[in-house]
Predict the structure of Phosphonate ABC transporter ATP-binding protein.
Amino acid sequence: MLLRLETLTKRYRTGDLALTEVSLEIPAGQIVGLIGPSGAGKSTLIRCVNRLVEPTSGRVFLGKREITAMRGRALRRARRCMGMIFQEFALVERLSVMENVLTGRLGYVPFWRSFLRRFPQTDIDAAFALLDRVGLIEHADKRADALSGGQRQRVGIARALAQNPDLLLVDEPTASLDPKTSRQIMRLLREVCTERGLAAIVNIHDVALARQFVGRIIGLKAGRIVYDGAPDGLTPAILTRIYGEEDWGGEAHPSGPREATAAALTRDELVRAL
């Protein structure tokens, strides 16, 4: 089993309980969609996995390594195996597309190389190949702030893949994108996971997209798992259990307000995630 969570609990200093004894297992290569209403704990769960948020109790295992027991260098090495893709892209706007992709290698190169932007040629070649894969090779020298939202998310995907991860942690990848671009991004995520045998947890507010592009859905409500199964098992009764009373007779597409409190990313968090 690639990822295992054992009774993961997170209580914030305010006293709010974001997660309550969440236990789950994800095998290598499986793409999981994480759904639920605002405040259900979706973003918190993802960030507890790579310890951008510190769990209050419980354990996280990546393979045989206990992530929650790690500190310092051991934790930094483990994070290299978990590529993070952020809702608000978290790109360095003044850097080029290529330089942003190369930041995915920060966990592998000495500080002086990263500071001087002198990455090994093998890393540069791999970054070009990734940009080609996500359809941005012609934009390699553009500044990140010159890109559209969909293009920025593709850069974020390429940066995460530059880490050579075993697991992708994807936080609301389509929240600020139009419907067509959202489908393209979800399709790209599914394709690269299949090509590379990657597992992924995708925090997604759009149930229709989740049904279309992931093989397993976990529904959270008030920090607890209330559904774990196939997309076609999301019956009106299950959706009501997750989101509350609503007319689920048509295609489910709950897309209420996102968890803005967990979406904001500080510079220090980005450095730790990479």
User: Anything to note?
Assistant: The chain has eleven helices and ten strands. The chain has one domain: 3-273.
